[in-house]
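job 3f2a | input accepted
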Amino acid sequence: MSQDIYIPPKVWTWDQGNGGRFAQINRPVAGATHDKELPRGEHPFQLHSVGTPNGQKVTIMLEELLALGVTEAEYDAWMINILEGDQFSSGFVNINPNSKIPALLDTSTTPPTRVFESGSIIMYLAEKFGHFLPTEAGARAETLSWLFWQMASTAFLGGGFGHFYAYAPEKYEYPINRYAMEVKRQLDVLDQNLATRTYLAGDDYTIADIATFPWYGMLVIGNLYSAQEFLDVASYKNVERWARLIDSRPAVQRGKRVNTIWGDEDQRCYERHSAADLD
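job 3f2a | predicted structure (279 res):
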């Protein structure tokens, strides 16, 4: 069926029945839809999330810190079921007014510190504990440049390509081609950078790698959006090498499982409240 020509109205209005996987939870207004307090565990960090790529950034970071012996990074990971609208509860909105996972509450401070946006959270943790973010000015700038590259670029991969290729109720050539072209350009940016480096910012593993791996690494070696053949991800050899190197880290394997409710049953960990939940 050919795509109908869309003529935008003078003033846009919300069509609640517009279809798509997330049609029941997407809306053009902010704020809470219902009152519900968030649970509180015993550990310093209270994470409220789900195991999407953005959620995995934070759980990988926390597991990496714990693997280094940073016991102060112990955390409770609570499930936020985004398909059921948990992110619109009053408790969640209090720690993230944008109603997006992940959101973190650091209860080791007085008063507790809220941190939202995945890049902000892992940068906060890196600075708090002094790991995975260089202190030398040049290396720090390079690391943060790649971190913010990921934060800016993923909107095209997830919100653009992923939506139109995997989640939209109907597939149309123009948006899929537009976003596929940009995703392949981004993969080429990574591939060329990794041709001369072990990790994104140089010889050291940093928060730039932790942020980028769940998206672009798993796009290449995983099954993100079931688009591997379509995007010819096997042609990005340097990205594949980098992704497999990171995926081999025990802390990464643990972090990928936290708040995960899909995939193999033995790899799921609905909530995490102690290391034993992953053992």
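job 3f2a | The chain has a mean pLDDT of 95.
job 3f2a | closed
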